[in-house]
Amino acid sequence: MSAVKEYNAVKKQSAKRIIFFKLLSILSSIVLLYILEFSLKVFRYGHDLRLFIEAPENKNFLQLNPDASKKYFTNQKIATTGNIELFKKNKDANTLRIFILGESTTIGYPYFHNGSFHRWLQYRLSHTFPDRNFEIINLSLTAVNSYTVFGFAKEVVNYEPDAVLIYTGHNEYYGALGVGSTEKIGSNPKLVNLILYLRQFRLVQLLTNTYEQIQQAIAGNTADTGGTRMKLMVSEQKIPYESKLYQKGIEQFHHNIDETLKLLSKRNIPVFVSNLVSNEKDLKPFVSFPSDNVKFPAFNRNYILGLEALKKQNYAGAHRYYQAANQINNTHALCNYYLGKITYEQGNFGLAKTYFTKAKDLDGLRFRAPEKLNELISQLCQKYKDAHLVDAKTEFEAKSANKIIGDELILEHVHPDLMGYALLADAFYKSMKKEKLIAVNTENEMSFSQLIQEMPITKVDSLAGLYKVSNLKRNWPFREVMTSNPYTIKTVEEKLAYGVTSQQLAWPDAISQLYDYYINNHELEKARKVVETLVLEYPTDARYYEKAAMLSGELKDDRKAIFYFKKAFALAPSFDKARYLFVLYLRLDQPTEAIPFLDYAIQNNTSQFNLNPVKAYAEQVVQLKQSLAADSTNLTTLNQIANAYYRMDNKSGASKYLQKILKIDADNPNALALMAQIK
Q1: Residue 662: CB atoms within 10 Å
Q2: What H or E segment, with its residue span, contains residue 601?
Q3: CATH number for the domain that contains residue 425
């Protein structure tokens, strides 16, 4: 009889033991992922996608990370970069720090540099508040949209902003990750933002890159990096009005801007959001969808008859035919545009504006934001207490012929000309004043007309912008017929601008050559404008302030000389700058302002001159002027002030008071004797 093997039941694991092993497994996975992530960082795989990095030249400052945009582009070869504008790691108490978020208009295309609206704003604020520091950091990029605005805002809140300024919307469909873009990864904003969050990790970058390489190996390397940026970014060239894809773009914008304003309001950070402007009057719709002949058989007949009448300048006939066509099918973009043109010529500007706006909204190639986005901007600004609407559109309309925006202020479809950028800056400035972010003393305020007159934009910058737009219009979707050389290149400024446009010459080199040219030709006013341009471009470099001050001195412009010497002194104090400042202030009869710089010069005296008597005389003048306030005709006091200035070798100060004396007493012997010595 065979032995029967005894059956032993497997002991059941306890619930606690199972939980322990599950937790251990999860923990091990997390540790492994951490080790992988750490190893990839150590071996410098992938990109550091933080918004800010230390400035390589000065560890006390931060700047925009050139790789920050790579998070938003699936094709890294076409990722755009922004400005390098420094701001201090440790914010000064006297500093107003403003971050700018947006797209190509916001960064200042096609001028960049000092043509951009934030530089107009920076110049005006600096000259209206000469004793305050302004850090205006433009984080805008070309070819991006509200995903970047929201993503950047999430990091900006940690850097002590006093305000955030936003202008965005025109790129919503074709900017990186837009629903009609070649760079899209989905149409659900929450999912897209989750993917963007994960992209900061090197392990995710490794997996993404591996996947893309496999895809390219299977499909072949068909990535197109040629053509204009506009062409490269467009996947869906035809997005009908109120279609499913159109609505997804609206929802994407609404979600991202809503989340941005919610985030900033939670931190009590004032945010100023501008509505959008575009060329409505002078730009035909890029894509007008054909009318269905079966559904609307009479539309095409009326439309063609209208076109023929329009060519003959028969506006009444054209209006009749187009109106008939529009009554049959009111969703044809070009039909609405031509109705706008005709009613404009007939002087019915209100109706023309309605047609132009509708034509823009019906345009199937969505390079101009639909009016729905302006409605959303207004609604969202009302939703949050710290969000403020900047009504740039009204400002542009006020400066446009018959209040319809066209070629007068817009270079092509959406980018303003220099006056347009000045108006955009003015719109933000007015809103900041209204909301009391800045408290302006009207006596010291730089007016808009002064800004237009004094803003340092060189001819090279202005021409380079026009050349860039001219080149843009020769390509899709504009395809304007132009001569092979649509602009002249004869003068030094034109040659330098062409060099910048064609990328044969770096902008700093062009500006340096322009400065040398003006100096060699003794065109000091133009040379100073070049240096002021560099002050705005490099606001932390004292050398440019000092050079602008010296040129202002040569031009006998004491006001600007003082302004730039003070800025230079604040960045890099020195005996020479202090000496220039106290001399200028005394010459302008402002001894109170001169004394702090006299004190510095005395404590850091590198000259052979004894400055203590000068300070004593300056203090004496301060006291005498206080006495003079009670009796402005006191000849004894006036003579004492004149003598004090004369002993300081301040002839202009002495002469000013001697003239006051002689107006009161033409034969005053002391005044006449001192006047003779001055002459």
Answers
A1: 15
A2: helix 591-603
A3: 3.40.50.1110
Summary mean pLDDT of the chain: 92
Shared-domain flag, residues 475 and 596: no
Cα 126 to Cα 548: distance, rounded to the nearest angstrom: 14
Is residue 449 located within the same domain as residue 326?
no
| Close Cβ partners of 410 (under 8 Å, ≥ 6 residues apart) | 277, 278, 279, 282, 283, 416, 417, 420
CA gap 27, 528 in Å, rounded:
64
Phi, psi (rounded to 5 degrees) for 387: -100, 130
Percentage of residues in the chain with pLDDT exceeding 70?
Answer: 94
Please give the share of the chain, as a percent, with pLDDT higher than 90.
81
Q: Are residues 56 and 117 in the same domain?
A: yes
Question: Do 392 and 244 sit in the same domain of this protein?
Answer: yes
pLDDT band at 1 (very low <50, low <70, confident <90, very high): very low
Same domain, 260 and 277: yes
Q: Are residues 674 and 597 in the same domain?
A: yes
Q: Which two tokens stand for residue 130?
A: 């000469």
CA gap 251, 188 in Å, rounded: 9
Domain of 544? 456-565
Contact criterion met (CB below 8 Å) for 590 and 599 = no
Distance set, CA 464 to CA 275, 290, 500, 508 (Å): 27, 38, 7, 13
